[in-house]
Amino acid sequence: MNLTAFLRQNKVEFEFVEKKSTHHALEASKATDIPLGKIVKTLVFVNQDSKPLIAIVRADCSVSRHKLEFCSQSKSVKIASDEIAEKVTGYPTGGIPPVGHKKRLPVYLDQQVLSNECVWSGGGTRTRLVKLKVQDITKLVAPQICDISTQPMEC
């Protein structure tokens, strides 16, 4: 997938920042000096029928599987393997943006993400973050807005 082409085609404002290769948001935050609360994680889960779904939460939070199950009306959800995540989104884990996925998947966006006007996220590769307006994310993926986060830190 070509994230830049997707964003241009959809007339979305964006900004990339290059960084060393990272796999986790905490590493990305340290590598770029962007606060963890300004970064969102795009995580791929699979439900009991092996159907993929996407959860987007602030990087200083975790996804509550229980809340995600409730929100998505799934009996169970578990994090997808790196292979499945890349197959359905077109991007490697650690670089998955919240938009521009290869397949149209159900997206569950944590309501706390809405408190930011703009957020940083995976930029399509592990060496890049992309800054997007939250309203553009919601316009492009039409997510279900719900409470799916846990507060491990001060989320």
Q: Could you explain how this protein is built, in words?
A:
With 155 residues, the chain is α+β, with helices and mostly antiparallel strands. The chain has a single domain (3-150), classed as YbaK/aminoacyl-tRNA synthetase-associated domain (YbaK protein). It is built from five helices and ten strands, in the order H-E-H-E-E-E-H-E-H-E-E-E-H-E-E. It has helices spanning 3-9, 25-32, 65-72, 82-89, 134-141; strands at 15-18, 40-47, 52-58, 62-63, 77-79, 107-110, 118-122, 128-133, 144-146, 149-150. The strands form three sheets. Strands 5-2-3-6-9 form a five-stranded mixed β-sheet. A three-stranded antiparallel β-sheet has the order 1-8-7. Strand 2 (40-47) and strand 3 form a beta hairpin. The termini are far apart. The relative contact order is 0.25. The mean pLDDT is 95.
User: Beta-strand level of the residues, as a percent range?
Assistant: 25-35%
Q: Which strand order spans the largest sheet, edge to edge or round the barrel?
A: 5-2-3-6-9
Task: Report the CATH C-level class.
Answer: Alpha Beta
Percentage of residues assigned to helices:
25-40%
- List SSEs in N-to-C order: HEHEEEHEHEEEHEE
Question: Spans of 5+ residues with little confidence (pLDDT < 50)?
Answer: none
Structural class: alpha+beta
Tally of individual domains: 1
Mean pLDDT: 95
Give the CATH topology. YbaK protein
Morphology call: globular
Number of strands: 10
User: What is the terminal-to-terminal distance?
Assistant: 31 Å
CATH superfamily: YbaK/aminoacyl-tRNA synthetase-associated domain
- What does the main sheet amount to? 5 strands, mixed
The helix count comes to 5
Radius of gyration: 14 Å
